Amino acid sequence: MAERRCAVVAVLGAPNAGKSTLVNTLVGAKVAAVTQKVQTTRTTVRGIVVHGDTQLVLIDTPGVFAPKRRLDRAMVAAAWSALEGADAVLHVVDAAAHASGKRAGADARSVDDSAAIAAKLKENEIASILVLNKVDAVPRPALLSLTAKLVEEGLYTDVFMVSAKTGDGVGDVAKTLVERAPEGPWLFPEDQIMDAPARVLAAEITREQAMLRLHDEIPYDLMVETESWEEKKDGSARIEQTVYVARESQRKIAIGAGGQTVKIIGEQARKEMEAAFDRRIHLFLHVKVREGWSEERALYQRLGLDYEA
Ligand SMILES: Nc1nc2c(ncn2[C@@H]2O[C@H](COP(=O)(O)OP(=O)(O)OP(=O)(O)O)[C@@H](O)[C@H]2O)c(=O)[nH]1
Ligand SMILES: [Mg+2]
Q1: How far apart are CA 191 and CA 27, in angstroms?
Q2: pLDDT per residue over 57-108, tens digit each?
Q3: CA 26 – ligand 1 centroid, Å
Q4: Residue 301: CB within 6 Å of ligand 1?
């Protein structure tokens, strides 16, 4: 039998660049939450995929940005610490944000963040692979000048142009990662596709649906915890979760008139969970106010983040 290979791959980039989408596409299943909102990913999530004798362990990270709040600082620290021990680094850049004519707001920030990441990679002599994402939304000529600029700013061994969403070009990234994977034992059993326990994934699924519904009203002040998970005799599972918000006004919004909003969130989340866990799910959501949860030490521990970062 051929020698086994294993590569740990850190996926880094500005908020909303498409890191989680790329990890999901590389894994071929949904392991990380994706939304149109920045700062969706809160901590490092590992997606795992096997190609022949090679196991790729992809570390999805929170977007790297200029942090102000404690939670933000911890998220950025977690992203950079993913580089320690990584065999390869993917720097994901939102080509659409760079190419958009009048750069303002989120797009401008994304451009600044990408440049800062490129500079830091260069400064620390971290060779990485540049992944220009969202090429489905950008005309080709714009991509070439953008590539030239980023290659100058960073320390890149390769450049790939992909659409994480359609899968276009993603196979080439996987092929390169596999080819360069060092010899070594696999880090996870061969049928495992993520390292988070099911209750964490279930909480992420609900948080994704809640963010998709509530992103205008409750941008970041939202957390979901799986309170209980009960196995039923008929093979189904009964899951109870709490959606935490920071203020009473947000609780009202999350519940909606006659409980309509939380009902829709719950229905969507349940469908996603049934697909993810391949079984029937009974999902019960509660919405509670927990002021200042983003300052709670225990929360950081559960998310695997450093409180003092
Ligand atoms: N058009 C297009 N949109 C994409 C592509 N990849 C991701 N997106 C969209 O970009 C948004 C952000 O995607 P995510 O995967 O959540 O981005 P992220 O980098 O993980 O974001 P954070 O975790 O918040 O840092 C979502 O609305 C995706 O659907 C792509 O290849 N093309
Ligand atoms: Mg993400």
Answers
A1: 12
A2: 999 888 887 777 888 888 888 888 888 889 999 999 999 988 765 566 778 8
A3: 14
A4: no
